[in-house]
Amino acid sequence: MKAQIPIQLRFGDLDAYGHVNNVAVAGILEEARTRVIWSADAPNEMNFSQHFSLTDKDKYLLIASQSIDYHRMMPYTPHPVMVALWVGKIGGSSFEFHCQIRSSQGDDALYAQAVITIVLVDAETERPLRISEAARADLQLWQDEPLKLGRAKS
């Protein structure tokens, strides 16, 4: 299952060439990711915040890696872009969010794809923690076919 998160572009996301800057693309992915994990406007079926709470000071979710493939320039538009987000892989202490950023205007243009590895760590020791069975079960509900990044594979 894939979450569809609309993200509004900001005029400040543009670069000198008049398209959305690559750093802003990372910000769009961050916004979608945080909405899915911690926001009240995440799809109701997503139970991630009960497992990975911002108020839980004993454990954190940290980004271990983020890979982004850019497929075309993203123009500024007053309409939001759509970020499809799903779980591509679940490990012992980590999971991967796989994402696609597309146009929301009917042409379904693919702007970028990303794989983001997130690790659950102990706040005190900064060592990886095993994902609980309950959290694993909720992550599995959102697991779908993993992306294969690389320009030739789009």
Structural notes for this entry:
With 154 residues, the chain is an alpha+beta fold. It has a single domain (3-145), classed as Hotdog Thioesterase (Thiol Ester Dehydrase, Chain A, Roll). It is built from 2 helices and 5 strands, in the order βαββββα. The chain has helices at residues 22-38, 133-141, and strands spanning 3-7, 59-70, 81-90, 94-102, 110-122. The chain has a 5-stranded antiparallel beta sheet. It is elongated and about 45 Å long. The two termini are 20 Å apart. The model has no long low-confidence stretch (mean pLDDT 89).
SSE order and pairing:
Blueprint: E1 3-7, H1 22-38, E2 59-70, E3 81-90, E4 94-102, E5 110-122, H2 133-141
Antiparallel strand pairs: 1-3, 2-5, 3-4, 4-5
Count of structural domains? 1
Overall outline? elongated
Low-confidence stretches: none
Overall pLDDT = 89
Structural class: alpha+beta
The percentage of residues in β strands lies in 25-35%
Based on CA atoms alone, the radius of gyration comes out at 16 Å
Helix and strand pattern = EHEEEEH
How is this structure best summarized?
With 154 residues, the protein is of the alpha+beta class. The protein has one domain (3-145): Hotdog Thioesterase (Thiol Ester Dehydrase, Chain A). The protein is built from 2 helices and 5 strands.
